[in-house]
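Troubleshooting log. The previous structure file for this entry was overwritten by mistake, so regenerating from the original sequence record. Sequence copied from the archived sheet and checked twice against the printout by T.R.
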Amino acid sequence: MNFLSHYYFDRDTSNCYHVLGTVLPDLLKNADKHIVLHPEKLQHPDNDVNSIIVGWNKHLAVDRYFHSSDFFTTHSHELKKLLRPAIEGSQVKPFFLGHIALELIIDNLLLTTGKVKVDEFYDHLSGCKTETINGFLTFSGLKNTEVFFRFYEKFKESKYLHTYAETHQIAYALKRICMRIWKDPFTPQQEAAMNDVLGIYRDYLEDSFMSIFTEIEAELNT
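Regenerated output below.
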């Protein structure tokens, strides 16, 4: 799941460090794909650092349930099939595209149906102290935290997740993700064709997408 989908499960919490923990694995991956941390079983004397660890573990659990669900299997496969002709000639693998596209569509639907408020998400991130985040990262084994903080400050400043509310921007967001792996993943024509597919599929999912959140919440509470 993407940032806002992870945030959905803890949108009512007042603990900014817990919220940060729920999205930190993806933030680190975006900052540098070579960063690999495993703080899952660690305990720290600082309660705020431990809140990040609890949020981190929540992230792992949500992703595990999501990726093993029939919802994910069905809709990522359908998007793969629908997007394949739209990107014919591209280096991007349709399976990868179907997976990421589904996650972006879900974030778009959370925003456009009012299930989450992106400014509240950013407010949580802004409430976290840099020294506490740095404490978590170094405690987890990251020697050079500068590369993360360079990305993290830009992430907060740009407030890029606001664009997820714009359906016509889903293909652009998808292209940006693919550009981390492929230099020029899509032509303008391919991007336009993807937009058409994603817009139609977004409308198709609108009435039923919350079922996956209900399903995951039930799993988390067992």
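DSSP finds eleven helices and no strands in the chain. Archived copy saved in two places this time.
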